[in-house]
Amino acid sequence: MSTATSELGVGMVGYAFMGAAHSQAWRTAPRFFDLPLVPRMRAVAGRDGAAVRAAADRLGWDDAVTGWQELLTRDDVGLVDVCTPGDTHAEIAVAALEAGKHVLCEKPLANTVAEAEAMSAAAEAAAQHGVRAMVGFTYRRVPAVALARQLVQEGRIGEVRHVRAQYLQDWLADPKAPMSWRLDKQKAGSGALGDIGAHVVDLAQHVTGESLTGVSGLLETFVHERPEAVSSSGLSGVADAGRTGKVTVDDAAVFLGRLSGGGLATFEATRFAWGRKNAIRLEVNGSKGSLAFDFEDMNLLHYYDATEESAVAGFRRIVVTEPEHPYVAAWWPPGHGLGYEHAFTHQVVDLMGDLAAGRQPTPSFADGLRVQRVLDGVERSAAGGGGWVSLA
Amino acid sequence: MSTATSELGVGMVGYAFMGAAHSQAWRTAPRFFDLPLVPRMRAVAGRDGAAVRAAADRLGWDDAVTGWQELLTRDDVGLVDVCTPGDTHAEIAVAALEAGKHVLCEKPLANTVAEAEAMSAAAEAAAQHGVRAMVGFTYRRVPAVALARQLVQEGRIGEVRHVRAQYLQDWLADPKAPMSWRLDKQKAGSGALGDIGAHVVDLAQHVTGESLTGVSGLLETFVHERPEAVSSSGLSGVADAGRTGKVTVDDAAVFLGRLSGGGLATFEATRFAWGRKNAIRLEVNGSKGSLAFDFEDMNLLHYYDATEESAVAGFRRIVVTEPEHPYVAAWWPPGHGLGYEHAFTHQVVDLMGDLAAGRQPTPSFADGLRVQRVLDGVERSAAGGGGWVSLA
Amino acid sequence: MSTATSELGVGMVGYAFMGAAHSQAWRTAPRFFDLPLVPRMRAVAGRDGAAVRAAADRLGWDDAVTGWQELLTRDDVGLVDVCTPGDTHAEIAVAALEAGKHVLCEKPLANTVAEAEAMSAAAEAAAQHGVRAMVGFTYRRVPAVALARQLVQEGRIGEVRHVRAQYLQDWLADPKAPMSWRLDKQKAGSGALGDIGAHVVDLAQHVTGESLTGVSGLLETFVHERPEAVSSSGLSGVADAGRTGKVTVDDAAVFLGRLSGGGLATFEATRFAWGRKNAIRLEVNGSKGSLAFDFEDMNLLHYYDATEESAVAGFRRIVVTEPEHPYVAAWWPPGHGLGYEHAFTHQVVDLMGDLAAGRQPTPSFADGLRVQRVLDGVERSAAGGGGWVSLA
Amino acid sequence: MSTATSELGVGMVGYAFMGAAHSQAWRTAPRFFDLPLVPRMRAVAGRDGAAVRAAADRLGWDDAVTGWQELLTRDDVGLVDVCTPGDTHAEIAVAALEAGKHVLCEKPLANTVAEAEAMSAAAEAAAQHGVRAMVGFTYRRVPAVALARQLVQEGRIGEVRHVRAQYLQDWLADPKAPMSWRLDKQKAGSGALGDIGAHVVDLAQHVTGESLTGVSGLLETFVHERPEAVSSSGLSGVADAGRTGKVTVDDAAVFLGRLSGGGLATFEATRFAWGRKNAIRLEVNGSKGSLAFDFEDMNLLHYYDATEESAVAGFRRIVVTEPEHPYVAAWWPPGHGLGYEHAFTHQVVDLMGDLAAGRQPTPSFADGLRVQRVLDGVERSAAGGGGWVSLA
């Protein structure tokens, strides 16, 4: 499958939800794709020795270490994969880049613009030496989303007039759902805005190929106090009957944006939309057609071609499982759909390809910084009562 | 079907799109519903004598007159139905009320807040004498929308957290679509904002039972010059190859709002969403459940009950054609859906019931004024660069 | 709207569900369409004098008579509209044709093939004298269905490989739903097969332009005894606690068919599909594309064009509300959908056009007989244990 | 992750489409699930030495062998996984069982009833010694399908009245799609009937917990001659311009069935339904509710509860991604859907659990034989002109 010279040792930091998803991707990518550079799962790092050891066994890592710093000194590690909460991203990523390791860092890039700027600067410096950094806006690599971008780039929908982007979840709608690090401003930076709003900001800019030049928005916390979690399971954990904790982040964010091409954008990110489990919705209306996507039907893309004759025009429900579709040829026959984790596998595929070719992978840390500035603009608008904030 | 004392003579002003819809409603309501007060289609008014005569014949009015003022002096007319462009609403409606005629006025109530205030004051004065005024936010009376309001009122979704409301059309997305009075600020007051945004503002407030306390928004005109229409057909008419006219209204409006109960609302009104023909979408997320509606499937309401056991919870696709549903018992068996014009018939039914009972029909002119103030807030926000405008 | 010479007096027999639908159509057609022959609603016939008088007032008929025979001798009646249970169709329709009256007869044409043959013969004889007969397979005139046929005729889907047709209701799934004439073999001829199966047999043949050359099938009655109805309301009425009646028809029918062009067809008609209210589903797969329709979304047609490039091919969700679509130009702007009863209005429009032009309206009684023979074939197959019955 | 005593060596025969899917499952199951018996991927067998070696490397097998018989003599292989065309199933599976190896065999169990009977007998004999056999009707283990069965077993939809089951693909609708072993009766036994019809027969019986007592059906081959494939890719390969081959199996099958509980079933299996890529649709209507599934939206199950109050009853769109749903807790948070291959992982999980516990895994070879008898019944009905064939 590979020779020694075309291997890349990977060290991962963190092994919770994102760590499991990344591990599945590192394991699976070489099984379905011909990679010019083959990842080797060298070591996973965590603070609790027994837990990280168990995680290494379960997730398929050769080794377990209790300090992420250890990964930076290992010769068999060429890339550090950062899967920890946002407050640690800057420290780990910058140190790893300075140690000459490629970095894949989960989103959002950081908890503050200042951190993101430092990271972006570190990435730029490292790139001078061929050391690369990438931020994990994974949903870009859902085939239907990648197809949407491709259709925009081909000019199929013309100039972009409207983007409406929503990321709707419901795991906090129940006031008895327990605390988690995601609800602690110290760890998470922000709430729905940074955790899921970041994804739709990235998708809106990525799919249209444009950037946001200004925003206005509102943030809201509907439930200010929650039971502490006794154990963690999935996103939300299990509540402790007695103790409570204070929610210090937003439960929901709504914002407007202006696109660089002149179009209008609306955004919504919430964990309070009962019945919407992971509804990432993106609709783009252009001068020649429209595109619509909803992650709850992740193998579908809807496309309206306004140049069709009127009697038979209609949104086409494209089942994005054809070999002609991005990433799909490596998988199953038409109609045999993919799931959530496949986008992580595609991320590994693209990253290995770029590293092997000496190309800058995307989204870069600079791209991540740009998203961070949009989020920061929304926070400033909300703090100032909802006024307009220019990002130009 | 009725005795002389339980009849109400109706005079209608205007006979284009809205006039046709209203006529169908006046004709049809007594055929399916037991009305305590039966409308008689006495006369239709218009400026062009031959055209209004032809319209009277086609639409089923006893008489045709060439000045709306004539309707006000007729003893056989007890109600004036105003179906003209917005710039004429105030003059006609106020005069009719002062002449002691009930008034049904198409939306938006007026082109400016000042006019709407005058109309609302006139309506209040007339009400002292039992003369009533109502504004035609007809979509309230689509059975699925009426059911949505009822479920909110019953407490089924708890406190409202989110409203996301969109009114998407595409009839102007083609830059060659011709001018119409709807694109002329003088006649129409505003563009997408007043024409269709008004509907979703009303629906959001009506379904939740709350009001908007502040807004921020952006307006945009994507196409500034269009061919003049040589003839009118449907919404958009037929283009004249040579002459062009200037579009003086917005093509699209996006705005955020805060609800009186503390929830967040997003709004979008556009005629540039290719492939969306008349997509009035309303989703409401509450503390105990959610509701979702799309006029492109107007006989459906989607309802999520968060108190269900998790394994079988899901949005219920309610086919709103059961006899238990609002207005439906008078029509067809389950599954035999209704169409656009039925909401106008329901408007007649409710109006006749209220007038017979001496009740104030809803939405009142005061309700219409409240919507107008929201639209005005959005315009002021947009004019000021998107800042927040308090409506309290 | 018309001159004396271009009017046609109509007399209707029966005034229940179908009578109400037909009356709305007779009233409405001339209001939206330019008709070369304008119907006048002269008289409605029924057995109960007081009830028929009330129905005439409510439904808008000039006169009420207590014997349908009376309609045949009136000079002001040129067409008899038969809206009674199936056991009376043959007698009334044949007599009317022999009296020189055009006939519109509800489906199914008759309760037996013998009756249908007699009716077809009478229609053929009458046609010699310019007297026309038509059977009311109304769903043909839902715009989305008419568009489906048009696309097949244009060759858009090529040769037909598969038809899958279902008519699913649930109003008898509750064993406490009461008896009605529709459950009595004497009155109704058959159950789900003739009442709703007839519609999908007609639609399958009409949309494809082919005929069924053989069938095999099963019939089933799930609930054999039901409470008698104390009053009738909608399809199912209100149950009487004490008395019960015997169901003598099928509750459900499933059958296979072979199309004249060699394709395969599956059919299902049932009133026991909980949650499906009036789900008339038709999917046709051809050598070049596919079409799909579901009456629960009656304004939509789904069309797959297999000649599209693979990356963007997908079922198009056509919102059948464009002026280019059959019947639609006379109604509302795009996206403002139609309802159940509009197909009856279109039936009047087509019938008036054909009569004015001296053309045979479709579906003719011969077409109705062909459907009857299919239903009879299914009944013979079921009676014989499910074997194949050739219809050639 | 395991001790030596709780491991099971696996040897796989075949490494094409099914081999890739099975390999992913063997690799992945222990990463997400706590297995009482951990599979070890010992060896893959194939005829072409170089190809099987490459496959072993890519798919993650320790070893590659060129004769399946070799697997039977290895001590480190405790289970043989048969992923070859149907004509080889009987020989391999029977030999493996006789050699004391557990067997997992792809569906359909065999190409003929006689072979299936021999296999079932061998499985029964082996079971006496604790050696187990299972057939791979994998779709049972899609979470939404498993949930459907569970809801039926809990009595949620009452007695089953109707099953409508369809498996629709389109990869042969183009007459230029090339030959494959799946179109050769010698290798495949039958066409759409055995390849995909087998799945929906199994699903119908599995979800309802009933069996088919009789069938009638039609088979059809629409395209009799096709270009030979020069290379294989996905299901359909790439066509050779010059040579053609003869299709000796059915392109499509339609059939009716009677369920053991008295309900009616309709089936359709075709590769000629343009636009339907892998649409496995199952709808079950019971006396108290309904269920509906479509693999094109594989993470959804639709459930109608007829005991709900009428005003809010509706098909619930259950997003089957909650931890309470079958198999889901081991994967991702709600809304992060699964894909096609996950059902294979679940198959491994269930099989390992059963083997560790000494239980008979399901579906057994006897279950596979029962499906085979249904398929045989359909073939006999079709051969005899579509008459009824009793399976009792």
Give a concise summary.
Four copies of one chain form a homotetramer. The first copy, chain A, has 392 residues and is of the alpha/beta class. The first copy, chain A, contains ten helices and 17 strands.
- CA radius of gyration of chain A is 21 Å
| N to C succession of SSEs of chain A | EHEHEHEHEHEHEHHEEEEEEEEEHHE
- Uncertain ranges of chain A: none
Q: What is the strand tally of chain A?
A: 17
Bulk shape of chain A:
globular
What is the CATH architecture assignment of the largest domain in chain A?
A: 2-Layer Sandwich
Instruction: Quote the average pLDDT of chain A.
Output: 95
Instruction: Please report the number of helical segments of chain A.
Output: 10
| Gap from first CA to last CA of chain A | 48 Å
- The CATH superfamily of the largest domain in chain A bears the name Dihydrodipicolinate Reductase, domain 2
SS-derived structural category of chain A: alpha/beta
Organism (chains A, B, C, D): Promicromonospora sukumoe
Domain Gfo/Idh/MocA-like oxidoreductase N-terminal (chains A, B, C, D): 9-137
Domain GFO/IDH/MocA-like oxidoreductase (chains A, B, C, D): 146-291
Keywords (chains A, B, C, D): NAD, Oxidoreductase
Describe it for me?
- The structure is a homotetramer of 392-residue chains.
- The N and C termini of chain A lie far apart (48 Å).
- Chain A has two domains: 136 residues, NAD(P)-binding Rossmann-like Domain (Rossmann fold); 213 residues, 2-Layer Sandwich (Dihydrodipicolinate Reductase, domain 2), CATH 3.30.360.10.
- In chain A, the strands form three sheets. In chain A, strands 16-15-14-13-7-12-11-8-17 form a nine-stranded mixed beta sheet. In chain A, strands 3-2-1-4-5-6 form a six-stranded parallel beta sheet, with helices on both faces.
- The first copy, chain A, is globular, with a radius of gyration of 21 Å.
- With 392 residues, chain A is an alpha/beta fold.
- The model of chain A has no long low-confidence stretch (mean pLDDT 95).
- The first copy, chain A, contains ten helices and 17 strands.
- In chain A, 32% of the residues lie in helices and 27% in strands.
- Chains in contact: A-B, A-C, A-D, B-C, B-D, C-D.
- Chains A and B meet through strand 7, strand 8, strand 11, strand 12 and strand 13 of A and strand 7, strand 8, strand 11, strand 12 and strand 13 of B.
